[in-house]
Design brief:
- The radius of gyration is 24 Å and the shape is globular.
- It is α/β, with parallel strands linked by helices.
- 51% of the residues are buried.
């Protein structure tokens, strides 16, 4: 066996113009990473080069992914390049798998300088699917704009990358592996860790596991159904909910992580988690939940398939926040939601006199507020909920938060939601997603729409649909000034706000790998007790009609309807 130090090489390369990270890192089709020479290496080198050399030398970084196709191939390259770029230690999830919330947890636990998350979240996997790389910084959260901009600038001018091509790491064995490299005084270390245990230990310090165990396996236990959608969450759900909290093994389904997520779309909503919805409608289970590919998103269902809108979910958790021991100890510093999310959380914040922040879409904005001690609980309409225990949204945390509420209140999901509406009023909310729309057509539509709504004549304009009359009070392109560092984020979504508080919002999303996704959000508040239990699609139909008429969305995109409605 050759025990000589491993060789570190510098290889020439040429830049690619399309490696700008979006709100969730760099996402492309798998074929792009496979077919374009050094495409992966270029971006990984750009990440390492964005870290100051003194900070990088001998440092600890975390690596993990959602198990999708190309995950292990990418990890091998990331390890080889980490060694060559002076990183001292990598902490990697067993088999290269680690949920996005667990990556954030492990970064913070090991005081790492950052981590690389390999995921395209809720996007399809497999050979024909998507792959993504995201850089999280030392706080455990997604990199801020200044960092991602630096990574992008480096990627545009890159001429070479450093790699240790003969380095091979064993991802299948929980172990500490060391490698001697030429011209390096200290060996390079790779630790393969059980990320489920680190994450579970964190949750034990947040929730009352004894109360949850009684709820799930005691004399009067409830029946639950959790769908991991063949994503990363399977091992976490099995270990924590089934083995530790006592829920029967058959209460967790699709728990084997698969490279193609079983050929399904690992997106926890009514469209892609339809099997779970159908199962819940049967009335056999009291509580249901689904998770996305990398475990940061969640969908909550009650008995008979009662759907909890994500905007309502975070509001209900806020209204019952002290059922969670963690908040009994820390108190509540503030609430936050992304701008497109319904204003349901605002109603709770107002009633409890707690500060509410409205941010652009992207968890990094919440992270900044958390680091400054201004924020405790937050959520996004896109099935993301979380708190300041880590710096990512956290699907399993949200499920345990809901189970804590059920354990304390001894009510059904539906009754808890309906009580909430009667107390705070209801925000009727829906989102229309138009996926893989022609990019140029989508951009042109948004530009024309912005010009129109910003004209003086648009202010005060009235729209009549049936018996409903809406008058425009305000229209803008949302702009956010970070209260922590004063950073200004412009062009975050077009808003039409009516005199009754109803809102229509249009956004182009940056989380897909093909074309554009146009998202239309409708939010309307109702406090009349006779109306709060009505069908949301019926209640919102007039505003949907206005949204499509004003934007001419179907005509401009060639679509007859949305890909997904939530």
């Amino acid at each position: 066996m050759d025990d000589s130090p491993l060789q570190v090489l510098t290889r020439p390369t040429a830049p690619y113009p399309d490696q700008r990270p979006g709100t969730s890192g760099l996402r492309k089709k798998v074929s792009v990473f496979q077919s374009k020479k050094d495409y992966l290496q270029n971006f990984v080198q750009s990440i390492y080069s964005s870290i100051d050399l003194l900070d990088r030398q001998g440092s600890t970084m975390v690596v993990g992914g959602d198990g999708r196709y190309f995950n292990q191939t990418a990890i091998e390259v990331i390890v080889q390049m980490a060694a060559a770029n002076g990183v001292g230690r990598l902490v990697i999830g067993h088999h290269g798998i680690m949920s996005t919330p667990a990556v954030s947890c492990v970064i913070r636990k090991y005081k790492a300088i950052g981590g690389i998350v390999l995921t395209a979240s809720h996007n399809p996997g497999g050979r024909e699917g998507d792959f993504g790389i995201k850089f999280n910084t030392a706080n455990g959260g997604p990199a801020q704009d200044a960092v991602t901009n630096r990574i992008f600038q480096i990627s545009r001018t890159i001429e070479e990358y450093a790699i240790c091509p003969e380095l091979r790491v064993d991802l299948a064995t929980l172990s500490k592996q060391t490698f001697d490299l030429e011209n390096k005084f200290k060996p390079f270390t790779v630790e393969i860790v059980d990320s489920v245990e680190s994450y579970a230990n964190m949750l034990r310090n947040i929730f009352d596991f004894a109360a949850l165990k009684e709820l799930l396996s005691g004399e009067n236990h409830i029946k639950i159904q959790l769908d991991a959608m063949h994503g990363v969450m399977g091992p976490y759900v099995k270990r924590i909910l089934c083995e530790e909290l006592g829920s029967p093994a058959n209460s967790a389904i699709n728990c084997v992580p698969l490279q193609d997520f079983g050929g399904q779309h690992p997106d926890p909503n009514l469209t892609y988690a339809a099997d779970l919805v159908e199962t819940m409608r049967g009335g056999q289970y009291d509580f249901g939940a689904a998770f996305d590919g990398d475990g940061d998103r969640n969908m909550i269902l009650g008995k008979h398939g009662f759907f909890v809108n994500p905007s309502d979910s975070v509001a209900v958790i806020a209204a019952n926040v002290f059922t969670i021991p963690y908040f009994q100890h820390t108190g509540v510093r503030g609430y936050a939601r992304s701008m497109p999310t319904s204003a349901a959380l605002d109603n709770v914040a107002r009633a409890t006199k707690i500060e509410l922040y409205e941010t652009p879409t992207g968890w990094k904005f919440f992270g900044n507020l958390m680091d400054a001690g201004k924020l405790s609980l937050c959520g996004e309409e896109s099935f993301g909920t979380g708190a300041d225990h880590i710096r990512e949204k956290d699907g399993l945390w949200a499920v345990l938060a809901w189970l804590s509420i059920l354990a304390t209140r001894e009510q059904s999901v539906e009754d808890i939601i309906k009580d909430h509406w009667q107390t705070f009023g209801r925000n009727f909310f829906t989102k229309y997603d138009y996926e893989e729309v022609d990019l140029d057509a989508a951009i042109q539509m948004m530009e024309d729409l912005e010009l129109m709504i910003l004209e003086k004549a648009f202010m005060g304009q009235r729209f009549a649909v049936g018996e409903k009359l809406y008058q425009v009070e305000k229209a803008d392109n949302f702009e956010y000034t970070d209260p922590v560092d004063g950073h200004i984020c412009r062009n975050q979504g077009l808003r039409i706000i009516f005199t009754d508080g109803s809102r229509i919002i249009y956004r182009l999303s940056g989380t897909g790998s093909m074309g554009a996704t146009v998202r239309v959000y409708i939010d309307s508040y109702e406090k009349d007790p006779d109306k709060i239990f009505r069908d949301p699609q019926v209640m919102l139909a007039p505003l949907v009609t206005i949204a499509l008429k004003v934007s001419q969305l179907h005509e401009r995109t060639g679509r007859s309807g949305p890909s997904v409605i939530t």
